[in-house]
Amino acid sequence: MQDAVEEFTKVESIFIRERNCLLLRADFSPIFTDYYLHLMDIGERHPENLDSPLKDLLAILTLHLTARPWAETIAWTANLRAPRVNFFATGSPTHEYITGRLFTKDVREPDRNFLYSQTTQAGMEPRRSTIEVPDANPLKWIEHFYDQSEQRPGKAFHLHDDTYALVTAQPDFDEEWFEGLDGDTVSKITEVELTKALENRKFKFSCGCSLERIIPTLGAWKDKPEELFGDQKEIKVQCPRCAKTYQISRDSLEE
């Protein structure tokens, strides 16, 4: 009998001693299972050429979040020319969530492909960066992101099934070893290298949105509901983070 899927994805953070690199890796089966259940719930089904990159993006951002301080919330948006689509993902280790969606309608066509990153932390101004990316492969986006935004090398790998890994360079890292990394080498790191387990973090595919959280975002229309509702008693509002749809009535907005 097949083992039950865990509720959370557990991300391992492992220091590779003699290489001065950090390995982040995880089996994303729990996150991907909840992701597909969410798509069923909202009545969406993505074509393969969009579904796989979104899953890759969710996985890579989760690994990156594990390499960052606990208190950070990070959101990534990739605006692509072909296909004309926005990939969005956001997550927080503090709240143990990762979520994301596609935007396929009314997407601005850029002259190049861009990855936009925003990092927020309580009491601090958001940090934003914009990275030009060459194609629709999130595994390559992270390399450009680390080179330009993190100011150090990083490489991501889809190892097998739903297992992904991210290797990031630390000061005085072994450059020749790092440049030669491939999926086979990364999958065997803990077997052949001297390593030290640092910490584990848990993540679940979850947005946390609710009708109570969506309604305050419409506060600007509270005194002019006719502009929002027109002749309708109710409207549909979509969560910008996960695409779940909520029915909003005039009465609920006034309350």
Any descriptors?
about 260 residues, alpha+beta, Hsp33 domain, CBS domain Like, 2 domains, ten-stranded mixed β-sheet, two-stranded antiparallel sheet, 12 strands, about 35% strand, elongated
Structure description:
The protein contains 9 helices and 12 strands. The strands form 2 sheets. It has a 10-stranded mixed β-sheet with strand order 7-6-3-4-5-10-1-2-9-8. With 255 residues, it is of the alpha+beta class. 29% of the residues lie in helices and 34% in strands. The protein has 2 domains: 197 residues, Hsp33 domain; 44 residues, Alpha-Beta Complex (CBS domain Like). The N and C termini lie far apart (51 Å).
Structure at a glance:
The termini are far apart.
